[in-house]
Amino acid sequence: MRPPKISVVVPVLNGENHIRGCIASILSQDFPDFELIVVDNGSHDSTAGIIAEFRAKDPRVAALFEEERSRGKARRKGEDAARGEIIVMTDADCRAADAGWLRKLVSPILESGCDAAQGSEAAMRANFWSKRIQGKAEEKRRSWKTLEAEDIRGSVDTKNFAIRNPSLRAAGGSSDKYADGNDTELSIRLSQTSCRMAYVSEAAILHDDPDSFLSYAKKQFLRGFWTSKISRDHWNTLRKSGFLERTNQTPASFFRFFPGLFRTLMEKGPDALLFDFAEGAPWRAGIVYEKCYLLFGRRKK
Asked: In this structure, what DSSP letter does residue 5 have?
């Protein structure tokens, strides 16, 4: 029997430094039947030309264009065009760690009856920030095996994620409402279905993590902002779930932050303090900014 077709969806914006490696690593996969849909989100660098080069050489590559700037809109456009039974999501600043990545990622869906699968990640470049970012990610996923619907909430990362096309469509697909945090929002809706997700540690991608205090802080600020907005939109679902506490959106998490930094300094040293500050302070600032925008931003319109 012919293996089901897989659709790999990659949104990209001004990704000339990464997209070539990303596409090449996907096209080198040993899974026999897949298509690669690259959605250019209005790039003004050489991204479009690089995609065209691959498209001219390999019929598995499809190129789409989404003019409105939003990772959510770009990803949704790729999903809508996907023909595969399984949709695989990754990002332009990622590369498959090996030629078996795709096969390993979808194996629980094909062989164990799971609806979705979450892969692992490692740093593309080793530095102070990537070491700690990946350490946090691994700590979170260490106990994962197969996650039932309630456990999926907050556990989807579309850098390395696969899901049955019917299951994705039943949940409404990736939302085009949010510029960032779409995987968090999708996980909330999947948690309200009968979706079962496997964690596949051996299906790894390499991710180009932030490499400075400012780049990581900016990323955390945006994540905090969009997580706050998403949480407000799903308030009735989340308010009794423990999600707000886990994502540091409660008053208690704000009060604990600075005493927690002092403990980190005493127990783990200044390097750990620097990382925890870069991770936690901008995140909380993003949450506060979203609340202020909700209160005051609309009044200016």
From this structure: P
